[in-house]
Amino acid sequence: MRRTRKLKKEAIEDIRVRGKMPYADTDFFIAISNSDDRLNSWAIKVLEKYKGEIYTSILTLAELALVSVRKGIPVEGMIASVLSIAELRDDSKQNALAAAHLIDHENTGVFDSLHASLCEGEIISSDHIYEKLGVKRVGSDYL
């Protein structure tokens, strides 16, 4: 039990302290690409504030590719649009282990856990789960 608590603390601390640029998850890109999305105005305001500072991961691109295929949207165009807005960064073994810990011990979903482990402490997302994990949601004041 003590080892689990220590791992949890280390995993969450690691998520919190890594970065200053905001990481954007899937809902941000979906909202910004669809003017009918209820989060579209929020996403536009966040983009205006953080333009040139946003980054994301291959995980977001995988989720967006799945959504695009399901909705019949060309994947290539979606990915190109995302990469025109956000820098793509790599992940590490440490990220994977932190995500696994969150899945097992915080009962968070697989994608949310992976995003939390990759976001370096700040995330552009409408999802409240990140606050539970100690991750700062940037742009939430526009919601």
Radius of gyration: 15 Å
Bulk shape: globular
Question: Which segments are poorly predicted (pLDDT under 50) over 5 or more consecutive residues?
Answer: 1-8
Number of helical segments with 4 or more residues:
8
Helix content: 55-70%
Number of domains: 1
Provide the succession of SSEs.
HEHHEHHEHHEHE
Query: What is the tally of beta strands?
Result: 5
Intertermini distance: 39 Å
Class derived from helix and strand content: mainly alpha
Task: Name the average pLDDT.
Answer: 86
CATH top level?
A: Alpha Beta
CATH superfamily grouping: 5'-nuclease
CATH topology: Rossmann fold
Order of the strands making up the biggest sheet: 1-4-5
Largest sheet: 3 strands, parallel
- In the CATH hierarchy, the architecture is 3-Layer(aba) Sandwich
Question: How is this structure best described in words?
Answer:
The protein has 143 residues and is mainly alpha-helical. The chain has one domain (2-142): Rossmann fold (3-Layer(aba) Sandwich). Helices cover 61% and strands 9% of the residues. It contains eight helices and five strands; from the N terminus they run αβααβααβααβαβ. The chain has a three-stranded parallel beta sheet with strand order 1-4-5. Helix 2 packs across helix 3. The termini are far apart. Mean pLDDT is 86; it is low at 1-8.
